[in-house]
Amino acid sequence: MNVQFDHVTKTFGAHMALNRLSFTMKGPKIVGMLGRNGAGKTTALNMIAGCIFPNDGSIDVNGYPPATKQSSVCLINESGNFNKEFTVKDTVKSASLFYPNWDQKRADELISLFQLKRSKKVKSLSKGMESALGIIVGLASYSPVTIFDEPYIGLDAAFRSRFYDLLIEEFEREPRLFILSTHLIDEAAKLFEEIFIIHDGSLILHKDAETLREESFSVTGAKKDVMELNGKSPLHRKEFAGRTTAYVFGPEWNRHEAELHLLETSAIPIQELMVHLTNSHTGGRK
């Protein structure tokens, strides 16, 4: 259940999608791969599934090059996962033949849960129902590495919540490496055990979720007190009504020390942290 990238580079014409990307994911675990649009997340996820090959560097999935063991990875993309002319029944049957750990009973339960009609063609499904079909295939595949890249486009808040519950339920039932990429970061953040942030094709952060929460927080108080707290530049700073709030990240920042100086502290949502981290890597305003 391990994925390893070693200095992986991928270009599409003049565009560099991945720039010597290196990381290791070790399962079973639920991890988040996060980043802005165009950061390289989808390219990396398709490489894990053996759908795209690197120009340079190496990728190892469970001890093998991805293309040699594609049935051990189930990748569900935002769209375009299935033959539009297939019915729901055809799609599920096709998946059952490809994934060796397929659980038909679980697929049937999920089809009923999401209220899909087996006779409907993929091309006639709403965007939400097509996303539901992707979730069904991903969960019922029981692939050692299961990837969801923006899996719930078109699903309402209730069905997205159901998906999160199902993800935890399936992980407890049959632990595997789940990789989730989403722009609804704060909504899904409670699921993540580890977080990877990619920016401009490179890894800028890899932390377990608990450490990330401990090392990132905001500090609010009088400008002089906030500025004297550490002497280092925060990720981001803003002023309002005569008070300054600094967003800080890293082991050098001590939340207890800030509170001893009677400064207010609070957690930073992971989505906001990602925005400020990526700003700091592109010369954005701090």
Automatic annotation (TrEMBL):
One of its GO terms (molecular function) is ATP hydrolysis activity. The keyword ATP-binding applies. Residues 3-225 form the ABC transporter domain. The keyword Secreted does not apply. Pfam families: ABC_tran. Keywords: ATP-binding, Nucleotide-binding. PANTHER family: ABC TRANSPORTER, ATP-BINDING PROTEIN (PTHR43158:SF5), SKFA PEPTIDE EXPORT ATP-BINDING PROTEIN SKFE (PTHR43158). This is ABC transporter ATP-binding protein.
